[in-house]
Amino acid sequence: MASTAAAGFPAADASEAELMIGGMTCASCAARVEKKLNRMDGVTATVNYATEKARVTFAEGLKLGDLVATVEKTGYTARPVARPERKAPPGGGAAAPPGVAPPAAAPDTYTYADEARRTDTSMDTATGPGVDPAVTGPTPGAAPESGADLAVRDAEAEQEAAIGALRQRLVVSAVLAVPVVLLAMVPALQFDYWQWLSLTLAAPVVVWGGLPFHRAAWTNLRHGAATMDTLVSLGTLAAFGWSLWALFLGDAGMPGMRHGFDLTVSRSDAGSTIYLEVAAGVVTFILLGRCLEARAKRRSGAALRALMDLGAKDVAVLRGGREIRVPAGALVVGDRFVVRPGEKIATDGTVVEGSSAVDASMLTGESVPVEVTVGDTVTGA
Fold first, then answer.
1. What pTM does this model have?
2. CA distances from 56 to 39, 161, 350, 375 (A)
3. Distance between CA atoms of 37 and 43, rounded to whole angstroms?
4. Given 1.20.120.1200, 2.60.120.260, 2.70.150.10, 3.40.50.150, which CATH number is that of 314-378?
5. What is the pLDDT of residue 87?
6. How far apart are CA 273 and CA 6, in angstroms?
């Protein structure tokens, strides 16, 4: 009898983990973390910058602490994501039907297409009138929050706090940077000692507003890497540092100094030229981009979580000849479960009894249900 292929499952001596990665600011950061993890013996990792998560498969002998330590040595933070506890079916389960190997010999997940038009009604005793509730298990209700749900909620709270701090940094930097840019670009607004006012306004923007870029650049420098933060930090500090030199050691700090606005490049005294508007403007615009990016990531993540919430939350598993309602995340390879009319299929599997029509529009795009029967494979929703 056909069953799902076991190629998609990790090896028997391997474990899977999911890590929340913190401190990534661009796609190259995700690539560095992934590269470092994959260099470990027996480790296969994929890092998603959009979700800030790493999915890792590691061999026996390694621990989560080793993975976290590797990520931290790379210059980022890592926190394991709690996953539902997966318990193997009890040994006293129902005997396998003829022609089907026991779960231990054939690690496959099976499903029963127990829809309204099923041709085999041998399992109707579990769903018909007068069934003992102890047999079918408790009616699904509001299940308590699992560790994964709490981890998601904590991650959302941290994300909201990070966006709030970023927004505050952007607002303050914009309020201070706009006058600096106007004074430098509009000569009519310049007055005696205007350059010192620009320095007063631009210094908090470059130092405090650009602190995330400077901190990330320093972290990457200690690990011998360069990212977009390195360019931003180097450019803004160079412009700010030159302006300080021109103001204190050059002629830019003299009373009556004026900055002209020209569209052409001309020879001038470098000691009388300042670039405070460049430093403050670049920091402000990059902060604006980071804020928009964080909002877009939050909305896309919320949309993905909403789609995942549409999937099956629990499933009726056959154990010991009885149906027991368990969370969908608690399914293990070898479980056999019943799909009733209107229910979603909890995971990928093979039909071993009954026939029905399954909504496969998520994969095919076709609104017409697909007929499945014994031996056909189905995809979890």
1. 0.66
2. 12, 27, 27, 32
3. 7
4. 2.70.150.10
5. 47
6. 68
